[in-house]
Amino acid sequence: MTDPVTALQAKTHPVWEAAADLVVIGSGVAGLTAALRAQELGLHVLVVTKATVSDGNTRWAQGGIAVVLEGEHERGDSVGKHAEDTLTAGAGLCDEDAVRSIIAGGPAAVARLRAEGARFDPAAEGRPELARTREGGHSAFRVIHAGGDATGAEVERTLVATAGGRRIPVLEHHIAVDAIRTPAGEVVGVTVLDHNGVPGVVRAPAVLLASGGLGQLYQATSNPELATGDGLALALRAGAQVADVEFVQFHPTVLFTPGARGRLPLVTEAVRGEGATLHDATGASVMRGVHPLGDLAPRDVVSAAITRRMVQAPGGVDDHVFLDATGISGFAKRFPTVHAACAAIGLDPAKEPIPVTPAAHFACGGVVTTVDGRSGVRGLYAAGEVARTGLHGANRLASNSLLEGLVVGRRVADAIAADFAIGRLADPRRGVLAPPVQAPVADRDALQRAMSRYAAIGRDAEGLSVVGSVLDLSVVESPLWTPRIVEDAALTLVAEALVAAAARRTESRGCHVRTDFPERDDDSWQRGQLIRLSPSGQPVLADPIALEGVA
């Protein structure tokens, strides 16, 4: 009779192996930008993605790309002013050098994307100048868009078409499970599972995490089902450090539908940029007197204001407010995606206000990297939402995410090629296949309910303790032998890290709002918090990180 350990080893033993110079985990804007650039530089690239190549979070981005294009910007606007707005939104936790470096790379990145065939909306028919809008936290009209509110879809279409044309290999319907490391701890590949749980190995001297965010930690999110924090968990298990994970940005306005769970349709911030206003069930303004920018205040301010108003339950409504866009002419043409989502629930935004509520939207923290994607572990890189470059700080400025993916995606490919050329990376043949990973796995439904109730926008010590108790009570140790278990283990680990950081940060800053510590405390807390795994596999807080300079 086969003992359980032998049976587990047989089930998780790789049945195939592949090799590359670079394996990219994720097929969104950062991952595909990096893959395309790496191929240009002569590297053999393999992209691994959980669904199909076009199913990442990028295609859901509605708002646009924040960028100050030479000769195509509002009078008085500049790259420097874009950086200043980013620093203001980041509430004192941005790395200023990183902000200025990444923002400065935006115009060239967008120019390259346009050269590859991306089509952005023109200011007027037949004119080369692009239309620009303004979103929350921006001091100027500098957000370019495509298809009205389908910018992410156009960016993804362009990158997927280019990658297909250049025949970049893509391994679809596979999830990355764990890093392969040398005895010295260098990363030299990953283990993967297909949708049936069949295991395989990809050996490569460089692994780029471009796996997106963690929106599925919460019941309501703008993120697709794929956003389960897998890359963050893999990086922690590989020995990397993460930071700023307590800062989860909630988009102020997703379309409210009673009882809905998972990914909800986004009502882009650009709707407010075009003049829509928020009010409660009694018709009272939500943002009046809250912030000088009113309805165009930064996302953390608007989300928190909506949450406070819902708690008051004006007119007996405690789970949503209303976005009045009836004054916007040509709404269906300007915002076709939003209009279609509203029409699906029988609502016409031109005639009646849109019911909206905040939902988990973007992880401002992630794997600690330089502005060119290098982590603290040799051979492991990160770009996009999974990374913490220092650009976003405590709160991301609207429409900076696609920009970051384009800029850092290219830079990380350059960094990998340079590291490869100088012999900095380890030989994949030295990688040791570790025994099957066993990890704590919490019940996803219980986890999402607890995180949404106690660790979303308004947090306090008691509620965060409740989340910790839920995790303790619902966790079971499990081998990572199915994609669902890999995802649930990642959500569990990321939730533990987030709760630890949120409990320790006894202040309110950016999108981290503590109701028991409502004030910002620059004397004690104008710093990031590093998290690593302890020898027992628990996330623990390490020394704070400096917010000056970039490597």
From TrEMBL:
Domain named Fumarate reductase/succinate dehydrogenase flavoprotein-like C-terminal: which ranges?
A: 489-533
The protein's required cofactors? FAD
Cite the EC number. 1.4.3.16
**Role noted for this protein:** Catalyzes the oxidation of L-aspartate to iminoaspartate, the first step in the de novo biosynthesis of NAD(+).
Enumerate the catalysed reactions.
Answer: L-aspartate + O2 = iminosuccinate + H2O2
Q: Does the keyword 4Fe-4S apply?
A: no
A GO-annotated cellular component: cytoplasm
Q: In which pathway does it act?
A: Cofactor biosynthesis; NAD(+) biosynthesis; iminoaspartate from L-aspartate (oxidase route): step 1/1
Q: Where is this protein chiefly located?
A: cytoplasm
State one Pfam family annotation.
Answer: Succ_DH_flav_C
GO MF entry, a single one:
steroid dehydrogenase activity, acting on the CH-CH group of donors
- The domain of life for this entry's organism is Bacteria
Give the NCBIfam families listed for this entry: nadB, PRK07804.1
**Recorded family membership:** Belongs to the FAD-dependent oxidoreductase 2 family. NadB subfamily.
Q: Which residues form the FAD-dependent oxidoreductase 2 FAD-binding domain?
A: 21-402
What top-level class of enzyme does the UniProt entry assign? oxidoreductase
Keywords annotated in UniProt: FAD, Flavoprotein, Oxidoreductase, Pyridine nucleotide biosynthesis
Name recorded for this polypeptide: L-aspartate oxidase
- Tell me which Gene3D superfamilies the record gives: FAD/NAD(P)-binding domain, Fumarate reductase/succinate dehydrogenase flavoprotein-like, C-terminal domain, Succinate dehydrogenase/fumarate reductase flavoprotein, catalytic domain
Q: Does the keyword Flavoprotein apply?
A: yes
Q: Name one GO biological process term.
A: 'de novo' NAD+ biosynthetic process from L-aspartate
Q: Where in the cell is it found?
A: Cytoplasm
